[in-house]
Write the structure tokens for this entry.
Amino acid sequence: MPTLRSRACFALLVLLLLSGCRSTPDIPPFTASGYLADRGAVRIWRKNDGQSTIHLKTLYTPFNGDAAETTDYLWQEDQLVSVARHVNGKQPDDVTLRFDQDGSLSFMQRQLAGRREAVDTDTVELYKFDAQRMLAQSNALLSGRVMLKQGEWLGAKQIKTCDGERVSPALDGYAIQTLVKQQLRSSTPLLVSWLEAPEGTQLLRAAPGESCATQPEEADF
């Protein structure tokens, strides 16, 4: 269950989203952003290929440790052309949808443990709605200059970013204590994800055992 503190942080990010919607600054070709949801952390990587293609990769990680969800969305000429979602864990679930340029469904498949099945019409519409919601979320985050950073916790308030730079992000005392406690409980490196925006810096999540190797690179898109 999210704490009161995480709910307050979520409310802060909602305000950032709303304020970000008021302006539409130029978006770099490859970006990373994210936000705290009610039950987990969402990380978003995005690549704009000129004015015609947008690729979003989202990673939702629940607070309760349940299976993470990775979803790839692709738009061409403002038209959603594909959705691919992968849920790992004990009950894996893979869904792939492809659409024609007129928006009609051209391919669908759902792969569950040991079997395949079709995706019903209502579920397809839900995926399409979710895709547009995530695109709007990404637009708002980037308009508000909410950027995702990741790196390995070194201790003493220092993090080695996935780009190899040593930084000391302006995390508050509570966030620093959280990182120290998590590292004490684990012998593996601690991957830290945080958000930086003009309004401040916010710890998003910390995960023992994860590494920068799991972070998408621009070339992967």
